[in-house]
Amino acid sequence: MPESPEVQALADELGERLHGRAFSGGEFEEFRVLKTPARPLASVAGRSVARVRRFGKHVDLEMDDGSHLVVSFGRAGWAAWAPVAADAPAPVVAHFAFDGADLELTDAGAWLSLGVSVVDDPSEVSTIAKLGADPLAPGYSRADFDRVVGSRRKQVKALLQEQESFAGIGNAYSDEILHTAKIAPLAHAAALSGDERDRLYEAVVSVMGDATAARRGIPIDQLKAEKVASMRVHGRTGEACPVCGTTIEDLPGASGSSSAQYCPFCQSEPA
């Protein structure tokens, strides 16, 4: 579920609610969640949250002493204010306690994807250090886009999800971007025409920007439903394309949590 529009909304809510609150401790239901065993949660206990930032699909809680509590959501991690209902769809894997506000971290995946790190700088988290340019960053430019698309002989759907190239884009929004750009998911980046590159760049910026604006202010427990409801092709197998009316199909070879959808008319391969 987590992609940058939703993670940005989460970071905004955490910032509003946790700023100035002291971290009083936490515990793990699954010990593998902590990625820095030499820096346990106790090392930041008593420190107050100075600011909250997003890096791709990661949230950084910077403390007043300059230390950082980083949550990496991976494919299926998320957060909720306590208490989480016993019948919640995702199990709680970690608990964070702040003065008067308790946060639960959940993971709905078949394998654990959420991670927590205590570091002196967010770049010490390897997946943050490797992040590419973020399409939601104020300075994101066509040069950033061209630098990673270049002559890459990689399917454009996979390239969009490559965090080292496009920070924060995942499976769902890559489907939406390609549908907006009218580009086949399995087309190779190197084979794109100049016009297709123009459309893809514009779609990356507009789809991610519009989604972020739409999620702003949505409570974190409603973000998943809002995201699902906003999709035009992703998760819409068998429904009519909102542009041309053609039946939306699954991308061949994709399945489970990696399933992907497209419109075979709007996104047909060039003859």
UniProtKB/TrEMBL annotation:
Superkingdom field: Bacteria
Residue ranges constituting the Formamidopyrimidine-DNA glycosylase catalytic domain according to the UniProt record: 2-112
UniProt keyword annotation of Metal-binding present: yes
InterPro entries on file: FPG_cat, FPG_N, H2TH_FPG, Ribosomal_uS13-like_H2TH, Znf_DNA_glyclase/AP_lyase
Positions of the FPG-type domain: 232-268
Key words, A-Z: DNA damage, DNA repair, DNA-binding, Glycosidase, Hydrolase, Lyase, Metal-binding, Multifunctional enzyme, Zinc, Zinc-finger
Reactions it catalyzes: Hydrolysis of DNA containing ring-opened 7-methylguanine residues, releasing 2,6-diamino-4-hydroxy-5-(N-methyl)formamidopyrimidine
PROSITE patterns linked: FPG_CAT, ZF_FPG_2
Stated family: Belongs to the FPG family.
UniProt-recorded name of the protein: DNA-formamidopyrimidine glycosylase family protein
